[in-house]
Design brief:
Blueprint: E1 5-9, E2 15-16, E3 19-20, H1 24-33, E4 37-41, H2 49-57, E5 68-69, H3 71-79, E6 83-84, E7 100-104, E8 106-107, E9 113-116, E10 119-122, H4 125-135, E11 140-141, H5 147-157, E12 164-168, H6 171-180, E13 184-188, E14 206-208, H7 214-220
Parallel strand pairs: 1-4, 1-12, 4-5, 6-7, 8-11, 12-13, 13-14
Antiparallel strand pairs: 2-3, 9-10
C-alpha cells in the first residue's frame, strides 16, 4: 500500500493546552523526510490560522500557514457567497473570507467537550444544541467530522482517501469522519482518548500511545 498523505489533528495529538506532546516535532519531521505530504487539521475556533500556525511552530514543528486547515477556513470554502450569522470569536472573522455574515444556521463544529491540562471542559456543541432547540433548525456542521472538511484537506494535498492516514485523538470527529470517507485511521492515546472501546462510535485501524509511534506504523504499512 502506498500512502502519500498524512492528516494530523492538532489538539490532543501535537499538544494539550499549549504543552507539546513528547516526540511530536520529531514525528512530523520523520514523516516529511519519508516524503509524505502533511496537512494539520483542527476544530479550533478561537484563533486565526496565522496565529495558531505560529503557536505550532513554537513547539518546534515546521509548517507553512497554508498547511494548517482550521474550521473557519474550511467553512469559508463551503459557505462562500452565502448569508450566514457568524456567532464566532472575533479573531477568526478574517478567515471567513467570502462569506456574507448574516442568515442561516451553521456550526463550525459540534464537539461536546475538549481536553485541557485542567481536564475535560464543555465545548461549543452544547451551545449549538441550545440554538437548535431555540430556532427549531438543525445546524449544518462544517468542521470535523463533516465530509466537506476532510474533502477540503484531501483536495489541498491532491490525495485520494485510500492513500491517506488520519491521526487523531477523537473517535467521533477524527476517526469516524475520516473513516467514513475511506481513509486509514490511527487513534492516539493522548488528548481526548478514553479506554472504553466498547462505547466507541467508530473503530480505528490502529491505536498507538502517541504521535511519536506514527512514523514507524506508517512505514510498516508499506507507505
Amino acid at each position: 500500500m502506498s500512502v502519500s498523505a498524512v492528516l494530523l489533528d492538532v489538539d490532543g495529538v501535537l499538544h494539550i493546552s499549549g504543552r507539546p506532546i513528547s516526540g511530536a516535532a520529531q514525528a512530523v519531521e520523520r514523516l516529511r523526510e519519508a516524503g509524505h505530504r502533511i496537512r494539520f487539521l483542527t476544530n479550533n475556533t478561537t484563533q486565526s490560522r496565522v496565529d495558531l500556525a505560529t503557536v505550532i511552530r513554537g513547539f518546534g514543528i515546521e509548517l507553512e500557514d497554508g498547511e494548517l486547515q482550521t474550521t473557519p477556513v474550511a467553512a469559508a470554502r463551503v459557505l462562500k457567497g452565502r448569508r450566514v450569522l457568524a456567532l464566532t470569536m472575533p479573531a477568526i472573522r478574517d478567515d471567513l473570507e467570502g462569506v456574507e455574515l448574516v442568515g442561516e444556521l451553521y456550526c463550525l463544529h459540534k464537539n461536546p467537550w475538549w481536553q485541557t491540562s485542567r481536564g475535560a471542559l464543555l465545548d461549543a456543541g452544547a451551545f449549538v444544541v441550545g440554538l437548535e432547540y431555540a430556532t427549531g433548525a438543525q445546524a449544518t456542521v462544517l468542521g470535523k467530522p463533516s465530509a466537506s472538511y476532510f474533502e477540503a484537506a484531501l483536495e489541498a494535498l491532491d490525495a485520494d482517501p485510500e492513500h491517506a492516514w488520519m491521526v487523531g485523538d477523537d473517535v467521533d470527529a477524527d476517526i469516524g469522519g475520516a473513516g467514513a470517507l475511506g481513509m486509514h485511521t490511527i487513534l492516539v492515546r493522548t488528548g481526548k482518548f478514553r479506554d472504553d472501546a466498547g462505547a466507541w462510535s467508530a473503530q480505528p485501524q490502529a491505536v498507538v500511545d502517541s504521535i511519536a509511534d506514527v512514523p514507524d506504523l506508517v512505514e510498516r504499512a508499506g507507505a
